[in-house]
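Aldehyde dehydrogenase
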Amino acid sequence: MSDPQRLFIGGEWVEPDRGHYEVVDPASEETVGLAPEASRDQVYQAAAAARDAFETWSRTKPEERAAILDAAADVIQREAEPYARLARAESGATTATARGMQVAVGAARFRRYAKGALEPVEQGLPPQINAAGPMGRAGVFGALAVRRPVGVVTCITSYNNPWANPAGKVAPALAMGNTVVVKPAPQDPLSVYRMAEALAEAGVPPGVVNVVTGSAPAVGEAAVDSPDVDMVSFTGSTAVGQRIAEACGRGMKRQLMELGGKGAALVFDDADVDSAVTGIGTTFSFYSGQICTAPTRVIAQRGIYDLLVEKLTGYLGYLKVGDPAEAGTVVGPVISAAHRDRVESYIELGRKEGARLVAGGERPAREKGFYVAPTLFADCTNDMRVVREEIFGPVVVVVPFDDEDEGIALANDSDYGLIDYVWSGDVARAFRVAGELRAGGVGVNTIGRNMEAPFGGFKKSGVGRDVGSYALHAYSELQSIVWPG
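Predicted structure tokens:
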């Protein structure tokens, strides 16, 4: 454990007004470090520092912003091993995940938006011929649509990826000329302070990036309601997102919301079942199911239903549950004791609702750590809470269906619509079905992602889109400029 962490406000490392709280390793239950507990006043100071820095930063040349983001990526890559060890310790991710999907993706996102800072912000529009009238003389009018920075952006990030998620907000926001206040999840905030150190070393001016933390809700509330904040970018639960949206609505603040998910995986009779099992099986292992894009709700056609359940059960046998630092571990702990209790309560609820427990359901026999055994429920119906609600753990439910129309109806019968999946040997049908699904993204015979494709959800899964150039659009306002030809 290192020295107690300080806040990062206005380019300075600042002692927190309300002391510190412990960050706990989910695998060992030992203290990883002490995170600062900011006061509301300090959060407001961070937003004010971002406001002061905005005028200068927004006017810097794109090449300067690109150079700083590139330099930050260099620092992250140079320090990748210690950064990955810290991320593993505070998030419970396996070593491979901490290295490859957390720190490496964080660096890649800074690198991507270094290039993004150089993307054109102007779009020429077709000229318009106007007759003489109340608005003036006849003429040909040209027009530009120009993207401008929004201003001060509060970035509130999730606990399941303390590198990729913050980098996916901070990097495009900075590339567009915004300044930021970052409020990480309370469970694993220390990695975000390392990100701030990397940006400071890369030459980001004081006040452009600020990081505040706290275990109390008041810290996040202040980061949203500060009068200096123009936009809130949030990743987390739908319930919290709704409260943030209400506060943003009162202040007419822009928002980007990436919220919950209960991804439907439609598996048709003609599907490659092994491919489907591999894709669905990642729910059990990847972040221990703590990922909103996971295909947690399997909707299987009856012709392959029994085979799919059998193969998913067999897949569980290859998943080693254990210490994330040990070689061969596939499933680590969930983030906290409270979250373990929540996941276990859903498993018990599934039993009571009449779902058939095929595998898992018992707490792994380990002396320390917040572990949940990968769990599979079959013979579920769409009215069960375990089918309808986001569990955010290594739990998969399977619902049978007969024909295509029923499968689509079951998939769409959800409050969520982040990413759904279709497995079918008939590619034409797979794309036809994808077009009927009410989700922001659809994977066809894959759980893979194209990192230039827009990312976001329908319904209660969010508002807005980011990733690739779409993130640059998300962190900008459109201004029109019109002139006579």
